[in-house]
Amino acid sequence: MATTLCQVAGYLLSVLGLAGVISATLMNAWSTQDLEGDVVTSVYNTKGLWRTCETGSSGFTECRPYFSILGLPGSFQAVRALMIVGIVLGVIGALISIFALKCIRMGNMEDAMKANMTLTSGILFVVGGVCGIAGVSIFANLIVTNFMFTTTTATMQGSLQPRYTFGPALFVGWVGGAVLVVGGIMMCVACKGMAPEKTHYNAVAYKASKPNTIYKSGDERSRRGFDDDYKKSTTRSDDGRQTQPSKFDYV
Predict the structure, then answer these.
(1) What is the pLDDT of residue 38?
(2) For the CA atoms of 63, 65, 67, 68, what is the dihedral angle to 10 degrees?
(3) Other beta carbons within 10 Å of 180
(4) Rounded to whole angstroms, how far apart are CA atoms 117 and 95?
(5) Which are the contacts of 184, defined by CB distance < 8 A and separation ≥ 6?
(6) Which of 15, 69, 90, 217 has the most CB within a 10 Å radius?
(7) E strand or H helix at 55, and its extent?
């Protein structure tokens, strides 16, 4: 029962974390304009992974996609790739984990196969969550670097350049990636309880008993007479070899 609860809870957390990563990837507010010290506050700009948006004082928002891919920084494209890889791995893990749920019977599927599928989906969830967290962290590092550079330039030259700070999409991506990793770990833990236990047999070496030779005791006098006759009938040569009695020994 505990294994089933752990597996179902891990699956639900993984799906919830995957939804968070997908939402963060599609959001346009990865970086938002810092309005502190800005004279013009009637225009509010935000940037996402796929387009930039501009919101006027009237509340109308206009978004423009990035028309050039080669003109974007390499780190920006790396963030896109990490988020896409995390989503793909999470979707594959979710599809596998559906068939691996212990509360769902799929034909004559054995528990060992379900345990392997649960472990596979758990690993995919963990890797997908790590990719999502890494992508969001790289973008946050870019925001910090650009913010410090813009602040230094504005101080030295006195120019007014818009500065950007963390947007809500970053926090959604961090939380979603963390929940996805936790769900994957719970799926891996549930795999251990689903695997069938191996039966160990204690091997015992068997040795065949030697056949017992039973000698039937006869008359003691007949045995002594037989021994005396045998000793007389055998002679030993000088080199220690035993010879058979000849006809001259009885002369």
Answers:
(1) 60
(2) 120
(3) 33
(4) 10
(5) 10, 14, 93, 121, 122, 123, 124, 125, 126, 127, 128, 129
(6) 90
(7) strand 51-55
